[in-house]
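Sequence in, structure out. Go.
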Amino acid sequence: MSKLLTLLIFNLVGGRLSLQGIAALVIGIGMAVDSAVISFARIKEELNSLADHGRGIIIGKSADGKKAITAYFIMGRSVNSRNRVFVAEGDGIRTEAFDPSKLSDPSLIIYAPVRVLGNKTIVTNGDQTDTIYELMDKQMTFEQALRTREFEDDAPNYTPRISGIIRLENGDMNFAMSILKSADGDGSSCQRYNFAYSNPLAGKAKFIHTYKCDGNPLPSFEGEPKTLELPDVDIDTMTDIIWKNLNEDNKVSLFVRYIDLATGEFESRIVNKNV
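Output:
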């Protein structure tokens, strides 16, 4: 089935059907639906699972195996958290205040989420982007660089620091993710988890975000990064899928990048709620 028909089916169901609903549709009309439709639904269900993921990083390989895909989004409920936009800066991006007059504390919300160091793309939810960039430039590893950092100093939430890195090599990719978080909400102890993915499968991605669920204080993400199936779509469609399925009230900004594994060339998209 063509990509056009796949997208038509997804639009007809309006992104409203669950996986079970789509399965029933397939059986009911005796139609072989492209696997991309199921991928749409799985991404939708995961992104809609929380009203506020906090910040999220997605890294994976495109369905055709030719591109690395990464996405980073921020969400927020406070005036300070929502008063942000992504802007391009060099080969990466930075956050800045949408309305500078409303900026109350820039320490944890103004930073460079994405930077590029040679064949490596760094994506994080804080100024540890600069730590990773600077220390890897001095021949330290991703994991060694993060040993110098801990979770955010925003008690009682102690928001985790989540980080990812993509390495291009010999026309392929590998990537790693990390989370630095408090010990079950106890700010006296930092727990460090690193996840490395060699020879990632085409059409698969990993997704990590800062908060496990709603709460007061907000509980940190638990477990290994979640697996997502990536539909075989272009960057604009992927950006649209992610943005439309983040909570309308709490989403703030989204960055998506496709990197050609053979050449290292990339294209990026930025979406800001504040315009």
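Check: The mean pLDDT is 90. The chain has one domain: 51-272.
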